[in-house]
Amino acid sequence: MKRPPALLVIGIHREELAFGERVAEGVAPDQADVQRIPDGLSGRHPRADQRFHHELLHAALYEQLLPLASGRYRVLIDLHSGHDRDGPSVDLYCGHPRFCQVLGEALAREGLAGRGIEVVPLGEAVATVIPRRIWDNPKFLYLGMEVYLPEGDQEEAVRLARQLVALVSLQAQAFEDA
Q: Per the structure, how many domains does the chain have?
């Protein structure tokens, strides 16, 4: 059986696992495999005296994804959630400049450009605690998807996240063939 182009990772932060599960339920198997992290880290900012330990655990958790993604998937989609009472909105963090451009063009074609979705290129100007070996890896593309959830009903956010997983998967597959 052919592997899908994407690996969707949910639950890196334990508070986000429930949203990730809802998104994953509607993702087609030919778009993405799902890697659930059942015992993720807290997404809350650690106290100053806990920061070093938290950053080590965070990096170690991401490092465990390397053998899962390397050479097996074209793109690792790292799903996260935050809050925005005016949401849903989405930031797409991408480490490959050309893939950022491809995603921006695809969003425009799908009528999603300018609708609260922003492609954010990772690099020297944008800091992240995610290890560079993950987001700047020559063996797979990295896409961090931060979905900002509205208060109350989150169905629109779930649908939007599923739509974006499908779009990223499709674009990653085409990017591989480019």
A: 1
> In the chain, where does DSSP find H-type helix?
17-25, 51-63, 66-69, 97-109, 132-135, 155-177
Q: At 53, list the tokens.
A: 């330990």
Are residues 161 and 90 in contact, defined by beta-carbon separation less than 8 angstroms? yes
- Note the pLDDT tens digit of each residue in 8-60: 999 988 889 999 999 999 999 999 999 999 887 766 777 777 777 767 777 78
* The total number of residues written for the chain in this structure: 178
In a domain? residue 162: yes
Please give the backbone phi and psi of residue 174, each rounded to the nearest 5 degrees, phi first. -65, -35
- Quick one: which of 137, 141, 132, 134 has its CA closest to 173? 141
Range of the domain at 149: 6-177
**Is 114 domain-assigned?**
yes
* pTM of the complete model beyond 0.70: yes
Assess if residue 1 is contained within a domain.
no
Give the C-alpha separation, 35 to 78, whole Å: 10
CATH of the domain at 72: 3.40.630
Residue at 146 is within a domain: yes
CA distance 41 to 103: 29
Show the tokens assigned to 99: 């893939």
